[in-house]
Amino acid sequence: MRNFVFVFILMLTATQLFPQNIAGTVTDQGIPVPFASVKIAELNQLASTDSVGKYSFQNIVPGKYIFRISAIGYNPLFKTIEITAGDSLKMVDFAIKQEASRLKEVVVTGTLKEVSRLESAVPVEVYNHSFFRKNPTPSIFDALQNVNGVRPQLNCNVCNTGDIHINGLEGPYTMVMIDGMPIVSSLSTVYGLSGIPNSLIERVEIVKGPASSLYGSEAVGGLINIITKSPGNAPSFTADVFSTNWGEVNTDLGFKTRAGKAIVLTGLNYYNYQNPIDQNGDNFTDVTLQHRASLFQKWMFSRKDNRLFSLAGRYFYEDRWGGDMGWTKAYRGGDDKYGESIYTNRLELLGAYQLPVKEKMLLSFSYNNHKQNSVYGTTSFMASQHIAFAQLTWDKKIHRHDLLAGIANRYTFYDDNTVGTARRADQIWLPGIFLQDEIELHKKHNILLGLRYDYNSNHGNIITPRFAYKWKPDGNTVLRLNAGTGFRVVNLFTEDHAALTGARDVVIEGTLKPEKSYNVNLNFLRKIFTEKNNSLVFEGTGWITHFNNRIIADYLTNSNEIRYRNLDGFAISKGLSANLDLTYSNGLKLLIGATLMDVYSKENGIKSKQLFTEPWMGTWSVSYPFKKLKLAVDYTGNIYGPMDLPYLSNLDPRERTSPVWSIQNIQFTYSGFKGLELYGGIKNLLNWTPNKRNPFLIARSNDPFDKHLDYNDDGSIKPTASNPYALSFDPTYMYAPNQGRRGFLGIRYNIKK
After folding, report:
1. CA atoms of 321 and 158, how far apart (whole Å)
2. Running DSSP on this structure, what letter comes out for residue 535?
3. Is the pLDDT at 4 greater than 60, yes or no?
4. Per-residue pLDDT reduced to its tens digit, 397-421
5. Is the separation of the CB atoms in 176 and 184 below 8 Å?
6. Which ranges in 95-177 belong to alpha helices (H)?
7. pLDDT 10s digits, 678-689
8. CATH of 227-751, one of 1.10.8.60, 2.40.170.20, 2.30.30.140, 3.60.70.12
9. Helix and strand tally (H, E) in the chain?
């Protein structure tokens, strides 16, 4: 009997102490959350989820424990779990939710570190994929039209190529990145912004003002970082197809698969528009005809200790043309019928690999190959560009110092058939080194010091310092002061479409020197929550940027020329912007933005406003869900103040400045089906087009090859009965889209698991 009692007590003790293995998955609405932290508070044991949201603990003694689950951008979850003896493996799954406030979103663009938006020393604006769904567009270029302080600018009335303006600064001053890599730059700033599958975009991060100390010489006016979805977080399958009554069809497809230890995310964008329309009666297409395809793939590999390793690639092809309504490819390059035809082939590769060392070191790399075959009337533009980039960063916290150090190298090869590379192809090596230190002076006070040194093989040494100060008096208020410098090497023919059209002769006065800029901006942010669970977020920014050696394009001295030179003086971009984000408990959401700016140059005491630059702009987005009806309404729009335009002569009857103009849209979305959404609405409700108050937009569209001009003895154009305004052909008078009111209808299908 005594032996029996002893054995029973021994078995009971063993049962209570026998260690258990615990495993499970952390998800957000059924979607795995990678790199989340799972902590057992009483045991001080910590595990992290892998790329598919799975975690595990080994040898946990039975008992009752509090599990804490946390991830950047999510509300922390506390849950008490009782672990009992029995099975050798206990499965425990957790579901967490994203934080409601946009301020809690993770940003990486400002400091190259993952940090919540509110904690970043550099102000970063974040727009997630749901924001862009409020006004569905076939490309990210069009999608940015409702972002305050950002304006997609069309540069040609015929081929509709364009660039992105930030705070009034032209497209070449903006760096566009994909997943933090300088993929979209130089030649592709004009041609490569289309075709990024919108269904694969997680969010877009925007920094306004120079960021050259981290990102190099093209981030002078600001940068746009397009963050694609992580394969672990992406739905299993997505489809988004919409069409308009103009005949446009856009298709976005995305799906993920497993390949060994990797998760593979694949995306396809296809856009087709083959319906020539001429509503303004100039016998030229109002909108270019386009045939575009883009294939994107991203691989996320599972590694020991959840170290990062991702690879991505994109192939992009586009065939676009605009011009005479009777133009076909048989006329390409000839002078019978005028057309602008552009073939683009582009390949992009990028990746990130966390080194297998104790320290946090990340190797990032990218490569792109861009081929351009363009014809503007009888003028051909053939260009080839290769850019290779590699960067190694070391991220280290030492007491109150949050350090980031890095070395980088960038190689650019560019060749075309213009005078820009007539003697030899342009090849630039740009090695650099940078150091950034964010110092916690106090719990409420941080400063950030940064310095970058680059060596440009053509222009020599480049030093770009940076300073930031952040004061956070409480959890709902933050004040940021940022100052920095910018440096930009000009690639004229890759950046200025007007230099390529052949409508004017290009004159370069002297040797164009690199531009330098100095920027200071002050940012204030305040969020307020009410007892009724409503929230208000206000953000205001004031900035000033001073430029030396600014490149000026002179359209006015001679109507047959564009004259480029360095400014013998200085240029200024300054202004104020504000965003107001209101969210009500009943689902009503308002996002309102306004920007005032003054962009000008000063030379010999004379102040000149920059062409195509509005003195003020506003944007808005109003959304309301009718929950019982499963119906949501989105009303979006923008409004722009008058901007100076490039007229040809004093006889030119077109307006010297644009009127106040606005593009407004409305969308209805029905989500009463599982995984399926139907949406439709009207774009450009006001039917605004720039020809409303002008007799014509394209000068001399009836004589695009200037075959029937008469000239004075001094070479100027003579007014005649057939040419009373003494004009030559010119398509550069372009400030707003020519596409009027149109209806659209689409369908989205989403399989999360």
Report:
1. 8
2. E
3. no
4. 998 999 999 999 999 898 888 766 7
5. yes
6. 129-133, 140-143
7. 999 999 999 999
8. 2.40.170.20
9. 6, 45
